Amino acid sequence: MSAVLQSSPGNGKPPETPTLPSPAAANAAAASFAALTARLDYLDAAEIEQVRKAYRFADEAHLGQIRASGEPYITHPIAVAAKCAEWKLDAQALMAALLHDSIEDCGVTKPQLIERFGTPVAELVDGLTKLDKLQFDTREESQAESFRKMLLAMARDVRVILVKLADRTHNMRTLADVPREKWSRISSETLEIYAPIANRLGLNQTYRELQELAFRHLRPWRYAVLTKAVTKARNRRRDLIQKVQRELETAFEQASMVVRIAGREKTLYSIYRKMDEKHLSFAQVTDIYGFRVIVPSVIDCYTALGLLHQMYKPVPGRFKDHIAIPKVNGYQSLHTTLVGPSGVNVEFQVRTEAMHVVAESGVAAHWLYKASGPDAEGSDRLGTKWLQSLLDIQHETGDAAEFWDHVKIDLFPDAVYVFTPKSQIMALPRGATVVDFAYAIHSNIGDRTVAAKINGVQVPLRTELKNGDVVEVVTAPVSTPNPAWLGFVRTGRARSKIRHHLKSLAQAESQDLGEKLLTQALRSEGLEKLPADDEEHRTIWEKLLRFTGSRSRAELLTDIGLGKRIASIVAKRLVTMLAERGEKPDALLMTRERYTAHENISQGEVILDGSENASVQFATCCRPVPGDPIVGYLGRGEGLVVHADDCAVAKRLQYKDSERFISVEWAEEPVRPFEAGVLVTVTNGKGVLARVAAALASAEADIIHVDMGDEKAQDATDLRFVIAVRDLSHLEAVMRTLKRTPSVARVQRARPGST
Length: 755
Prior knowledge:
By secondary structure, the protein is of the alpha+beta class. Helices cover 49% and strands 15% of the residues. The N and C termini lie far apart (97 Å).
């Protein structure tokens, strides 16, 4: 009998079955109402009689049914009711626990239950129906509907989930009787769904037991190994634990404090998870043992904490005040880790009796702890916000699978759960953005992201995702990651992928640019082309690399492209080395290259068409566009920066650093638009900005940025636009269109860096 009804001990280990006279006697005892009556002393006689009526009905309904263990089926409803009785649930909940399988397994109808036991009990039973045969696969519509049914019933009445958790706990305790091929599915479902629900509702003891039982059947070998390791450690440290307990009792007695001290051992599953997540060996898990110090009042909690810190040194960074800031499920305690005797870390939890009841029983504490005042109100509020939110979600969501995914979001509050357009759910850390989402799908999607929609609305890529968002990412084959993304992405995966791509892209482009610059510098020295990277020229390249300090030919060319090396100096050295081998420069080529170029330009010419990406930047001080006379400056480590020929910034750089300037020219057909600044002075009035924007659109110029300044609008206001144009002639056509627009007084190109 006790094998069926015994509750799990505090350490989460399943109870051991005592030796009974005979299986038949045990079955008869477990199947009788007497197995339950001893636990119902908190109910009055009328309520006990109602529970007895439910028992008789269930016993009749399940007559002839046998569990996998060979016991009469009625032993299961009795065990579930006994667990609910531990939580001191009311008579209606106990009746529902006894009847919870009657609709599903016995052909009993809901109207029959309403007639016999009343609507509240029938509603509880109906909310629990058709849940035992769930497969752990929320994509299946029927399974999602079953969860939705249970959770909505639970939102209306929390007793539904309490009975369900009692049901699941007994099923897990007797899982060894079920065929082994079902262990994995049932244990996974328990770990993924029921244990988190228990945790969310503050049912700490049930949460630990469900985790422990699921771990035992999901990973039997690891469970056995850890069991042996913990037993050995317990034997080794028994004296230590007893010594700490004696010292605690003495210290609190001397301080005249009334306390209850209880030992606490970390569950095997929590040890396993810590070892797995932090890659620790068993010996490195230091907080296996701990103590709970239970005191009369909140003030006593802090007094006891001070006393503990005087006895043993606290471990820095291991103190948490969950009394001042309770967990979302209502849990309250002071946590501190101290260095005990022999240098062993020992964790202490300090709490009041009321907090202890809430910590172990969560929402069930509303029935368990009948205190008056603030504590009672607090226990009544436990989990109610989350439960009520289920109803709100239901109003917003018609799809059952999506509803369940919404619920899972709240079960794991440290994560943000979002959906792809095909309703696949993805978990991301809080603060994650659209770009994090794109990279979570696939690195190629992230690299080519250009725009995004959340819930059908276009949003910036830096938008932080919220639970339940449906995110659609728009990609383009030619798009590449933007360095600015690194300023707002949250996930390590996205950050590393962006950095890797940018580095590879910049390196490849800088290498191509460096090769082009070195080739052109060699032509100025009279050599037609760069020596090949072959056996014949290997010695030459090795000597050149020693001269420049580069590790490879690719690194040297990349450094030239980034401006870390001057192409003309490298070219002169290379020409000298080749001359020593008898490869003389071509005097005619040298004359033509050197003296047809601009007199201030010391290296060859680069043709720009806008496809250079990371290796070439167009200066924002003057914003040159195709058609403008331009010069190129090889900044140290930042690649080629292109300025307008009359840019004041470029002129200052040319005066100080002329050897870093190279000749650059526009290609005949640039492959992309370029940014240009336009200053538009308008007569202020209604709809002016709209007219100017319409004029820009009609002239086929995209608006990149608009600035109206911080000062209050006057009669004449300056609008500063950054627009995208094809070339200089397109820009001039745009400006002519703007001048013809009503309310526009003046239009000029905005080039603050030009002279």
